[in-house]
Amino acid sequence: GQQLNQSPQSMFIQEGEDVSMNCTSSSIFNTWLWYKQDPGEGPVLLIALYKAGELTSNGRLTAQFGITRKDSFLNISASIPSDVGIYFCAGPRGYGSGYALNFGKGTSLLVTP
Amino acid sequence: DAGITQSPRHKVTETGTPVTLRCHQTENHRYMYWYRQDPGHGLRLIHYSYGVKDTDKGEVSDGYSVSRSKTEDFLLTLESATSSQTSVYFCAISYRGEGNSPLHFGNGTRLTVT
Prior knowledge:
The complex is a heterodimer. By secondary structure, chain A is an all-beta fold. Chain A is built from no helices and 11 strands. In chain B, the strands form 2 sheets. In chain B, strands 2, 4, 5, 6, 9, 10 and 11 form a 7-stranded mixed β-sheet that branches. Chain B is globular and about 40 Å long.
C-alpha cells in the first residue's frame, strides 16, 4: 500500500501559537483526510479534501490538498489546550481494499497554557 | 456519534488464550474494518468486511480471523494470543462505501497479552 509520511512526529507548543504539520504520499491521492484522536478515544474526522489545490477550514483548522496530489497540510491557528491529541493524515488504500484508508503515523501535539 | 460500540473496552489475557473482540453498529452500513494502533506505527488495517460473510485481509492479518454473520456485528478473533498482539484495536465503518469516503471509528479496545 501507499506509504504516508507525516511530520513532525511531535510538537510541544505554548497556547496561542500556530501549528503546522504535513503529510506526503508515495503515490497520487484523490482524497486527503485529517483526523484527531483524543486520549482514550477513537480518531475523529476533522477535514476531508477531494480536489488538488483545495483549501478547507474547520474553525481554527485549515487543511490544503497539495497541487501535486502527493501531499497535504494541516494548520491550527491560535492553539488552545484542548487541541492536545494525535493528528493523523489518511488517504485511500486503493483498488481491492474495500475502500479502507492508509494512515500516517501521527503528529502528537502538546499545548502548554 | 458514529453509532459504533466496541466491547470489551479493556481486556487482559494470557499468552495462548483465545480472545474475541466485538464491534457493533446501529446503522446498517455495509463496510466495516478492524485496525490496530501501536506507538510508532499509527493505524494499520487488520481485516475488513464488505457484507455479511464477505471479509478480506488487510496488511497485518496474521494471527487474526474475523467473522460477520450479521450486518451489525463484526468480530475479531485472536485464536491464540501473543504478546505482540498487545495493542489498541479500533473498529471503523464507512458511511458511503465509496473510494473517497471517510471512515468513522469506535472508541477502541485496549488489549494486553501477558
